[in-house]
TrEMBL record:
Presence of keyword Hydrolase: yes
Official protein name in the record: guanosine-3',5'-bis(diphosphate) 3'-diphosphatase
Residue ranges of domain TGS in the record: 403-466
E.C. no: 3.1.7.2
Domain named HD: residues: 64-163
Pathway the protein contributes to: Purine metabolism; ppGpp biosynthesis; ppGpp from GDP: step 1/1
Entry keyword set: Hydrolase
Amino acid sequence: MPEIAVKTVPALPAIEHPEEKLLHQLCKILRSYLDQEQINDVIRAYHFGAAAHSGQFRRSGEAYICHPVSVATTLATMHMDHHGIMAAILHDVIEDTPISKEQLGEQFGLEVAELVDGVTKLSKIDSRSRAEAQAENVRKMFLAMAQDLRVIVVKLADRLHNMQTMGNMPVDKKRRIAKETLEIYAPIANRLGMNDVRHQLESLGFKALYPNRFTAINNAVKKSRGNRKEIIDTIQNAIQNRLKESDLDGAVAGREKNIASIYQKMLSKHISFTDVFDVYAFRIYCHQVDDCYRALGCVHNLYKPVPGRFKDYIALPKANGYQSLHTILIGPYGVPIEIQIRTHEMHRLSESGIAAHWLYKSDKDKSETIQARANEWLRDLLEIQKSAGDSLEFIDNLKVDLFPQEVFVFTPKGKIIKLPRGATIVDFAYLVHSDVGNACISARIDKKLVPLQTKLENGMTVEVITATWARPNPLWLNYVTTAKARSCIRAYLKNFNQQEAVNLGRRLLEKELQSLNIQLENVDNTRIIQVLQVLKKHSMNELLEDIGLGNRMPFLVAKRISQTDVNAAVKLDDNESTHKTPLVIKGTEGIVVSLAKCCRPIPGDSIIGFFNPGKGIVVHHHECRNSNEVRKKQTTWLDVEWSPEASGEFPAEIRIELLNQRGSLATIASTISSMDSNIENITVVSQDDRVSVDLLTLAVKDRVHLATIIRKLKKLSLVLKITRIKA
């Protein structure tokens, strides 16, 4: 396509085609808040976009330019600035035409070009799947969004118009787009406080994804509407009259739940449509915050409130800036009534959210507060995306972050911390700071010691206890709920595992080189570079990590380093022993050296190790049946032995036959406890009236400790037989 030059200001075209009618409608809205020079820039962008998309049509048959102009019109109703409107008109130019970002920059300036690029999908992504491509696109959008919030506002308007015009699309594509809308875009609109856009996206997404359910609920709503009108009028008049009696100038309006909300409530609470539709919902709009609390008192005097169902989002706003008082009452005829009480200003902000930054210039403080909340959320997401392993992991973390139900807890200094429902001490610690999360060992709730997995509830005062030696535990991933905690734990474990593998790989390689009378630190750097090239590794640490994880055999690498020609194939002499000195195991190496669960080796046992590719070394008891199988594979096992300094507690499994009588297990447990050991697990293998056969997993220090425990147990009259399990 030849370069399109639209430097001069073209006139507004006469209304001949649908796209020109749309442009006239757009300009009519823009005149209410932009000056003529800015509107001229928008018209210039229109002509540029129309020329770029010339010959392109939507599935409906209309010219493609109709879509971006419709998106721009949605943004104009939010009073988006003229650069945002221009970006909306041009948002598909880079993706769908030969026009480049540089050309846009020359024509309309860098700001518009950056906005368009932020909304544009990534092209030519080398992805393994469609899901990964979509995830990478969303990740890119969030990075651009962190630079300029207008990116996501344009994208939401774009998605809204796409959802409104999906009629001619194939069913499978329609469902895929609807699913993505419900999982990503509607929650983002909610997170940014744009409730009006969110409700539209949810309704359109639900209709496209579940057309039959939408039709059934929609028909049921229409059918029930007539029966409800009389009750709604009665309740509304009663509330209005009570407000007047109290000299409160408040407007009362009945509100109808959207169909997607009704379905979600039916699904989450396992109730029928009639149960949902028996709830009557009203909003009371006041002028001042004080009036909201007075109105609350009025309705609580009029109808009885349901205990525990009052929420004050005015004093404690939601993360997206939403403010309102929520209460549930028992109305006439015993029907439940949902009431939301807010000021007119709160209502405008709740519908517009981040768009209030452009829409309500008079409410500067409020809109800046919402902007600050959005920016804070984006900073958290940037931190999450830095530690996310890939785009799919980032999307998983994002979804966790987009579906919160808040609880409010306090720091010891009285600061309020907001967390999703179900959050634990670990979530709280990471929200305070990632270093606090990494070092936490326990906590005090209301001055009482509690474990880290304790779930937090409203009003708790939480004090995290840390230690310099502490580090994140992989088990934490089973109960943390916040995206920040999950990503920080994964990032730490990934880096820790990597460093641990490097250290183990170095030990293994040094051991093999020593058997060849070579010191690793004395190997010439040129020789190391040659070996790395042959093995296709970028650095020595990468090679050592590969060895530590069991992906590459250390003695083969050592042989290659010792050979005159590093490119030659590695040859082993038939009588050569490649494992002259055993690797010393302390039992505290961590993730890349693990003890086999089949035979549970403990210090003092004869042991053997073998490489498990990608996971490191697995240590077995020498008599383990599995180790005998592994030993036949000469290239995957190595001699290991326990260090005399091995310390800590190690699990050991015993099989015990004892008389089946009252208190027998209690006697066994107390005897084991008296020997400075704990029972970690008990499994009953078989049991009859006389004998019980059980498997006990004990925590012991070493082989001598276990032998002492077994001797003590054998002296009990109720014990018939004890053997240690070695697979």
